[in-house]
Design brief:
mainly alpha; about 0% strand
């Protein structure tokens, strides 16, 4: 897992580019794109389920909600579209997908169902 995290961190610029491209891709459902935008907005807003003033734990809700939104976006896009938009190594993509999947496992099932619901 440590190697996957390091590979994903090295690919932060490619990850940002991937999300940007997926948000602009017309093949992606508008609701999935809106979910990612809402999750990003939640991460920067001053109110949280767990306030950010609590070290470490205060950022967990941001990470989990972001991971759930990314997982829904990635599920909607599928592997072919993700690889079409990915500009880094296959190893770094696998690292990113693994991290998102791991964080998504902490998302409550009702929220996961809501985000994955068919359009």
């Amino acid at each position: 897992m440590k190697e996957a995290i390091l590979a994903a961190l090295r690919a932060v610029p490619a990850t940002m580019q991937l999300v940007y491209r997926l948000l602009r891709d017309e093949r992606i459902d508008d609701r999935k794109r809106a979910g990612v935008v809402a999750a990003l907005g939640y991460a920067v807003l001053p109110f949280d389920f767990i306030p950010d003033r609590f070290p470490i734990i205060g950022r967990i809700d941001d990470l989990v909600i972001g991971a759930a939104a990314l997982q829904a976006l990635f599920d909607e896009a599928g592997e072919e579209i993700i690889r079409e938009h990915w500009d880094a190594s296959d190893e770094s993509l696998e690292g990113l997908l693994g991290i998102v999947e791991t964080l998504n496992s902490f998302v409550p099932k009702p929220l996961r169902r809501l985000l994955r619901r068919d359009s």
